[in-house]
Design brief:
single chain, 235 residues, mainly alpha, 73% helix, transmembrane helix, membrane
C-alpha cells in the first residue's frame, strides 16, 4: 500500500483531473461550459492535505489485489491443502471484482453529482470544497468496490467449511433485502437508479456465488463418498 500511495502521490494531478471530470461535465449549478468554477480549495494547508488524502486513498484502491491476497493468506493456515489451492485461486478474483465495482461507481458519478448539485435552489451557485468532493468520490469508489467482494467472501467461507451452498441459497430473501438496504444507504442520491445500479450486479454476483459453492459442495460430497466407500447417488 505504501508503494501504491507513493505512485499516486507522484501522479496526483492526473488522478485529481480524472476525479473532477464528472462534476466539470455535470452541467449543474456553478459549472459553466465544462469549466470547474464550482470547485474551490480552502485553507493554507488544504492543497497539501488534499494531495496526501488522494495518495492514501489511491494507494488503497490501486493495491487492493495485494491486501486482499494478504487477507486470504491470513485465513489459509486454517485450511487443508486442497482448500488452500482453491482459496488462492479465488483470491485472484478479489482485485478484478474490486476494480469492477469502483469502475461502475465512476461511471455513475456524473449522474450522481448532477442530481445532488441540482438541489441548489434557483440560480444560486454551489461552491464545492475540492477536499470534500474528493472525499465523496473516493468513498463512493471504495464502497462499490467492497460491495463487489460479496461473492468472494461467500465462496471462501464455503471453502473453509463455515457455510454450505444450501445455507447460502436458503438466505436469498435476507440477502436480497440486505443488498437492497446496503445499496440504498451506500448510494448518495435519492433516485432509485443509483440504488438499482449497485443492487443489480451485487445480486447477480450473489447468484454466481450460489452456483460456485454448489459445484464445490458436490465435489466435496463425491470425495467423501469415495473415502467412505459409499457409492450411492449423490445430489
Amino acid at each position: 500500500m505504501v508503494l501504491g500511495s507513493i505512485v499516486c502521490f507522484i501522479f496526483y494531478e492526473q488522478i485529481v483531473e480524472a476525479l473532477i471530470t464528472p462534476i466539470c461535465e455535470s452541467g449543474a449549478n456553478g459549472v459553466r461550459d465544462g469549466e470547474c468554477g464550482a470547485l474551490v480549495v480552502t485553507g493554507v494547508i488544504g492543497p497539501l492535505s488534499l494531495q496526501l488524502k488522494v495518495a492514501l486513498y489511491g494507494g488503497l484502491i490501486v493495491t487492493s489485489p495485494l491486501w486482499l491476497w494478504q487477507l486470504w493468506a491470513f485465513l489459509a493456515p486454517g485450511l487443508h491443502r486442497r482448500e488452500k489451492k482453491w482459496a488462492y485461486i479465488f483470491a485472484g478474483f478479489g482485485g478484478p471484482l474490486f476494480a469492477a465495482g469502483a469502475t461502475l461507481a465512476y461511471v455513475m458519478l456524473p449522474v450522481a453529482v448532477k442530481i445532488l448539485l441540482g438541489f441548489a435552489p434557483g440560480d444560486i451557485g454551489n461552491l464545492v470544497p475540492l477536499n470534500e468532493y474528493i472525499d465523496f468520490v473516493l468513498r463512493f469508489l471504495i464502497v462499490f468496490g467492497v460491495a463487489f467482494e460479496l461473492p468472494l467472501v461467500l465462496v471462501v467461507m464455503n471453502i473453509a467449511g463455515i457455510v454450505t451452498s444450501k445455507q447460502i441459497r436458503s438466505w436469498w430473501r435476507q440477502m436480497i433485502f440486505g443488498i437492497a438496504v446496503f445499496a440504498a444507504i451506500a448510494t448518495p442520491t435519492p433516485d432509485p437508479y443509483s440504488m438499482l445500479a449497485l443492487m443489480t450486479p451485487v445480486a447477480l454476483l450473489y447468484g454466481v456465488a450460489i452456483i460456485i459453492t454448489a459445484i464445490l459442495d458436490r465435489r466435496k460430497n463425491r470425495q467423501m463418498a469415495e473415502l467412505t466407500g459409499d457409492h450411492e447417488d449423490l445430489p
